[in-house]
Amino acid sequence: MTDKTEKAPEVVGFACSYCTFKASEMAGSLRMKYPEKVRVIQVPCSSRVDPAFVIKAIFEGADGVFVSGCHPGDCHFIRGNYFTRRKMAALKEMFKAFSMEGKVKLFWISAAEARKFIEKITNFYNELREEKNAGKKN
Amino acid sequence: MQGKRIDNEKIKAALNRFLEKQNHIALGFGKNSIFITHKIYRDHVDDLFLFNPYFSINGATFFYRVFGKDIKALMLLRPCEIRAMVELIKLNQIDPETAIMVSVDCPGAISLKKANADMPHDFFEIKQALDKNNRELRWACRFCREKRAVVGDAGIRIAEDRSMWIFPYSDKGNEFLGLIDEETIEFTGKFILSEGVKTEPFTTDMATFNSDFSKCILCKNCRDMCPVCYCVDCLFAGDEYLPKGDALINKMLRTGTEIFPYGKEIFHMIRMYHVSQTCVGCGACEEACPQEIPLTKYFKGISERLQNLFSYMSGRDIKEVIPYLTIKEDELNDAED
Questions:
Q1: ipTM for the complex?
Q2: Are residues B32 and B127 in the same domain?
Q3: Which of A70, A81, B62, B251 has the CB geometry, 3.0–4.6 Å to A74, for a possible disulfide?
């Protein structure tokens, strides 16, 4: 049971329509549950995500953002997720410089890995919830 | 290293020879009524200054609009300005065939905001004046990464024995050296400028960021004066990037008592990311800021940190590809969380 005084973090996720979004649909058809404050946005490829989207999401109220795509080498558009990897590595380095590491995550989740999707996202959500409610009594 | 020993007069003679042809222009430093500033030479060169003790605007900001026609332009500028030009060539904003870029050793500069017109314009006199009064030197110049003229098509460098030399770095540079009436000889001495300052990786936190940027009035001058911020349709044109209507009301109701969302963090952080690989650390943004926010500290710090991730340095070599535009299959294997 969630305590009513506890603040729930908000998570925005950008999911590649060829893999992670399919994994989230599969998780739905398998009746698996993930926190309802996680909002998944479908993008045609993970490299469609300009890090500007992530920065905007974070400074307009999201507590954490994840970007998720196919495993390196499995991209539908051949090289898209390699670009994502460079861009997100740089973005994470920038957030590290601002002492905000942990707010941005990059996942590789294929269409078959519904369980991995649930685990990764629930872990991320729980991390953020602990951080947000740090110093409060449970 | 093969080069030519030159002086001011020989450079002027070579420039005059270059300007004899049609559609040729030269860009360098000349004098306006008070200060030394950028000047375009068309028919003859009279008052060329190789060294400029004032930093006002990065020349690349305006010079990339000069191109597009059937012209050839020779430029004698600071290394930071040449590096910005190189980045703009990589971003297809300048046709590489039109520009012959000659960098000149930079002794450092003072901000035009704090300038008085009595600065000398000889390399050694400028250096001496800046060394004597260290406070005057701009922040960006104090932590400059590359003061040496080792970028562009050719470089004018100062040796320890106070002689001036020019070295070609490409075919276009050789073309310009051909206009100088001097023998090519081997240079064996030492240069007066050594490698740039190595700094610790930049670290800060949001509290410091907010207090530094609390004075920001979002005039966006920093964007307009940035040489590598070239997009015509900027993300921040108008107010499309800010929440409005239902989204803003929803944000207000959801987040509780908070500072009004001006969008300062969004503007500066997104711009910081977008120029991270191309920023040359010239400090033109700070010169343009009416509120004197220490922008260079953030933009230079973040860009150096992010460039080190890919062992890249903006403007170093025209053949290097900007890291976000290329990939390697086997790298960053720990990127996944």
A1: 0.91
A2: yes
A3: A70
B335 occurs within a structural domain: no
Nearest-angstrom CA–CA distance, B72 and B93: 15
CB of B323 less than 8 A from some CB of A: yes
Q: Express each pLDDT in B202-240 by its tens digit.
A: 999 999 999 999 999 999 999 999 999 988 889 898 888
Contact A55, B270 (CB under 8 A): yes
Instruction: Domain count for chain B, please give it.
Output: 2
Q: Which residues of B touch A61 (CB under 8 A)?
A: 251, 254-255
Is the predicted pLDDT of residue B52 greater than 80, yes or no? yes
Look at residue B262 and tell me if it is in a domain: yes
Q: Look up the domain containing A108 and give its range.
A: 48-130
Cα separation, A109 vs B1, in Å, equals 53
**B335 and A89 in contact by Cβ < 8 A?**
yes
Q: How far apart are CA A34 and CA A120, in angstroms?
A: 10
Query: Which H or E run includes B257?
Result: none
Contact by Cβ (8 Å): A55, A18: no
Same domain as B210, residue B179:
no
Q: What pLDDT is attached to residue B245?
A: 87
**Domain ranges, residue B125:** 2-186
Number of domains in chain A: 1
